[in-house]
Amino acid sequence: MKYIALFLFILSTLTALATSTTVRHYKSSREAFAGPDRTITWRPWQQSPEGNFRFRTGDRYLGGQVWEHYLGFEQYPASVQPIKLSMIRLGGEEVREEVMIRPGLRYAIVKVTNGTMTAHKGSWSWTAQEVQ
């Protein structure tokens, strides 16, 4: 009987430890946001000047003043011509790859990681061309 009481005491102690919440204490509210982000903060979709696809940008802080910046493209379902996106730049940073969106592959995301950039990194630019 003593062993059963000891077992139940240990079990209840372990259960209490497992269900307790972790509380973090920060010196300031700024310190609470100093760590890396787990998700990308996306901005709303915008229509391209050509009118046959849309795009949006996003950012993610990796910590240590390093940011990832994203550019997402989506071809409209009514558009049937493939679109080649090239000369993609973010501020002074050039993306080396070209992107193709087309029926069956309507989405593309480009990522730039740069330690010298901040959340205010400049503007994206690219050249879009319909492929015959």
Report what the structure shows:
This protein has one domain. Helix content is 17%, strand content 40%. The chain has helices at 2-19, 29-32; strands at residues 41-42, 46-47, 53-63, 66-75, 83-90, 93-94, 99-101, 107-114, 124-130.
List the keywords:
single chain; four-stranded antiparallel beta sheet
Helix and strand topology:
Blueprint (H helix, E strand, L loop, with lengths): L1 H18 L9 H4 L8 E2 L3 E2 L5 E11 L2 E10 L7 E8 L2 E2 L4 E3 L5 E8 L9 E7 L2
Antiparallel strand pairs: 1-3, 2-3, 3-4, 4-8, 5-6, 5-7, 5-9
Helix content: 10-25%
Q: Please write the string of helix (H) and strand (E) elements.
A: HHEEEEEEEEE
What fraction of residues sit in β-strands? 35-45%
Rg, nearest Å: 24 Å
Output the number of helix runs: 2
How many domain units? 1
What characterizes the major β-sheet?
A: 5 strands, antiparallel
Low-confidence stretches: 16-32
**Shape field:** elongated
Kindly state the number of beta strands. Answer: 9
Distance between the termini: 84 Å
Overall pLDDT metric: 77
- Secondary structure class reads alpha+beta
Quick synopsis:
The chain has helices at 2-19, 29-32, and strands spanning 41-42, 46-47, 53-63, 66-75, 83-90, 93-94, 99-101, 107-114, 124-130. It is of the alpha+beta class and 132 residues long.
